[in-house]
Amino acid sequence: MSAHVRCPDGNPPNVISIGSETGIRLALMDWGATWLSCRVPVGGATREVLLGCGRIEDYFVQKAFLGATVGRYANRIGGAEFSDGDRLFHLVPNEGRNQLHGGPEGFWNRRWQIAECSGEHVVMSLVSADGDQGFPGTLRASVSVRVQGASAVSIDYEASVDAPCPVNLTNHAYFNLDGLASDVRRHGLQINAAHYLPVDPELLPVGDLAPVDGTGFDFRREKPIGQDFLCDAQQEIARGYDHAYLLDPECPMLTRAAATLVAGDGALAMDVFTTKPALQFYSGNYLAGVPSRDGGSYAACQGVALETQFLPDSPHHPEWPQPSCWLQPGETYRHKTVLSFRTG
């Protein structure tokens, strides 16, 4: 890393590497608690399976949230507002009239403190003051990333608040398991979910959860991402897949993978386990022009994001069949995501 690199706060980023030379190797930085690199052993070599920028400074200008930890509320909140009883909270919008991934100064655009660090794990923490991006109460959050053996990475999120507040933390990593700047629609994908959320032109949920049966959103059996790409009006709205799935009940119990991604060449697969009730599947439809690891720029659909979270816009939809997204004082938000890699 060049000595002149500075984060938006004027100070240099801290970069941490965890893992082993013979297993998974991760690189992260404290700005945005961002994943910079994920290298996985495949057939006697290693593959870089994470999309990223070639220069640290490019992370501060790209708008794709590459590898970042996002919050207070991942995904979209319609109208950048929500209510708690008679109190209406106005959030800071950053996508038209809506708020996306916690606002323009969300957790992805903030320096986290390194609380613990070893050869196998790192814990980063952050304090978000009352009124930050419009959210009520002071929130204290931490994310722990641990390499488990040679084939898995666990992400543990914790948070507490001193006033009721919706909380929804996730990581916005983009994966391409082929290890190349190639079209991710060659990858196979399975999502263990029978329902998804249709969206309107603002990519906000519209109507009720819809069954995947008989639609291009049915990934209950593995199929190429490109097989039914742009086959219906919902995908035309989003230029592909950018939709939330309500996971099958076994998934949040960690007894069944939420999703499985398979490299186009079949040599590597990644199982995603999570305690969260939902998963946002984004096929990288707007990646074109984002600075790439090789110094150029990515094209659309060169990476896929599988964001474990609550359903988007949940503060406006208490009727949805998932746990409440509201965190109360005295409670602790605890959620886990595990990425488990296996070779073909």
Q: In words, what does this structure look like?
A:
This protein is an all-beta fold. It has one domain: Beta-galactosidase, Chain A, domain 5, CATH 2.70.98. The protein has 1 helix and 26 strands. The protein has one helix at residues 233-238, and strands spanning 15-19, 25-29, 34-42, 45-48, 69-70, 76-77, 81-84, 87-90, 99-100, 113-117, 121-128, 139-148, 152-161, 165-166, 170-171, 188-191, 193-196, 210-211, 223-224, 242-247, 259-262, 268-274, 278-282, 305-309, 326-327, 333-343. A 9-stranded antiparallel beta sheet has the order 10-11-12-13-26-22-21-16-19, with no helix packed on it. A 5-stranded antiparallel beta sheet has the order 18-17-20-23-24, with no helix packed on it. A 4-stranded antiparallel beta sheet has the order 1-2-3-4, with no helix packed on it. A hairpin with a 3-residue loop joins strand 10 and strand 11 (121-128). The longest helix has 6 residues, at 233-238. It starts with 14 loop residues before the first strand and ends with a strand.
